[in-house]
Amino acid sequence: MTEQASRSRFGTLGLDVGVFGRWSRLAWGLLLLTPIVFDVATRSDLLSSGKFYLQAVLYLVGITAAYVLVYWAFGERFFASANPWVNTAIFVGPAFTVGWWPILVAPATGFELPEALVLAMGFYIGVSFILQWRIGYGGCEVVSIPIILLRRRYVTYCIPLVALDAVEKKIVDSHAARKAVLASSSRHG
């Protein structure tokens, strides 16, 4: 299922987003970016290292390019007709792995990912949430940049925000149905 990136209406879970869901994405983006910016701004070991910033920027460019390339290459051929949970797993998998690696995997294995990669992924996700808020997309946040560049949308879910979106959709749909019944009964009554 595709839709022009410039048009949005609340209706399809994983594609559209309501008012509360939209603003929650802005909040998530700001909550994610604030500690990243604070950490980078206050750590003297990072501030003195141009190499670290270069690595982080290169990782950020690589992450962005990978998401855009996958979105472009498989969009109409796969994502347009695949189960939204499959699309979600494909897009969320890399972000989830990199984001949670330092907490879940590194302590158990002793294998650390480069700090610049973890920073770049966190920054990418935070910016993606803010872009998702801006364009009114209710799916997986990490595809916000590909949506803007390629002007195509596919149904994906944003974990855990899909639950919030489902509740908001139910409320909006039931409110609209009640309004339609009331309007119909007032015309016929």
Write the layout of secondary structure elements.
Blueprint lengths: L18 H24 L1 H4 L2 H30 L4 H26 L5 H21 L8 H7 L10 H28 L1
Helix pairs in contact: 1-5, 1-7, 3-5, 3-6, 4-5
Describe the structure.
By secondary structure, this protein is mainly α. The protein has one domain (19-188). Helices cover 74% and strands 0% of the residues. The chain has helices spanning 19-42, 44-47, 50-79, 84-109, 115-135, 144-150, 161-188. Helix 3 (50-79) packs across helix 5 and helix 4 packs antiparallel against helix 5 (115-135). The longest helix has 30 residues, at 50-79. The chain is globular and about 70 Å long.
Features:
0% strand; 189 residues; 7 helices; mainly alpha
Task: Describe the global form.
Answer: globular
> In whole angstroms, how far apart are the ends?
40 Å
Query: Which sequence of SSEs, written as H and E, runs from N to C?
Result: HHHHHHH
Q: What Rg is obtained from the alpha carbons, in whole angstroms?
A: 19 Å
Quaternary structure state of the chains depicted = single chain
DSSP strand content: under 5%
Please tell me the overall pLDDT. Answer: 83
Q: Sheet with the most strands?
A: none
Briefly, what is this?
The protein is mostly helical.
